[in-house]
């Protein structure tokens, strides 16, 4: 199995830590959307798409990258995110990303989310929310998620 992770991570690098944990199990290359072309995605059996959550939405760079993808031929994908707060039911950003990928011809085979340090807006005044996250336990959970994905190709 050949895997790739397309990840945007800013602020504190929370999502990159999660991507690296997943990538370590999948032996996956982790790239920013600007580092890969849509054509190159076809070289991979499994592609992960991840972002931090900013004001209840995923990073625009990832959303724009997915929007620009041509319709493919059933490649497997997974989605993941780190956020200060849980995904609210009225704003399902991971499900929306998964739906976008399905519309592009991907088969979405899983999703992962965990808390991350959040210093957006007024949270920065008090040192942030979720200090120390993603934690060692969060990264272990990310690796366990990746083990499940890898099992699909065994």
UniProtKB/TrEMBL annotation:
Residues 4-150 form the Flavodoxin-like domain. PROSITE patterns: FLAVODOXIN_LIKE. This is Flavodoxin. It comes from Nocardia rhizosphaerihabitans. The lineage of its organism: Bacteria, Bacillati, Actinomycetota, Actinomycetes, Mycobacteriales.
């Amino acid at each position: 199995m050949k895997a790739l992770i397309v990840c945007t991570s800013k602020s504190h690098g929370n999502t990159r830590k999660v991507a690296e944990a997943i990538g370590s199990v999948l032996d996956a290359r982790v790239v920013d959307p600007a580092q890969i072309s849509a054509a190159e995605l076809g070289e991979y059996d499994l592609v992960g798409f991840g972002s931090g959550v900013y004001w209840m939405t995923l990073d625009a760079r990832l959303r724009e990258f997915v929007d620009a993808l041509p319709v493919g031929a059933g490649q497997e994908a997974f989605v993941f995110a780190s956020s200060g707060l849980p995904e609210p039911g009225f704003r399902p950003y991971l499900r929306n990303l998964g739906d976008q990928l399905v519309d592009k011809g991907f088969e979405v085979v899983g999703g992962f989310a965990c808390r991350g340090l959040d210093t957006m807006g007024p949270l920065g005044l008090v040192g942030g929310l979720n200090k120390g996250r993603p934690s060692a336990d969060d990264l272990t959970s990310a690796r366990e998620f990746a083990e499940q994905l890898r099992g699909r190709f065994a």
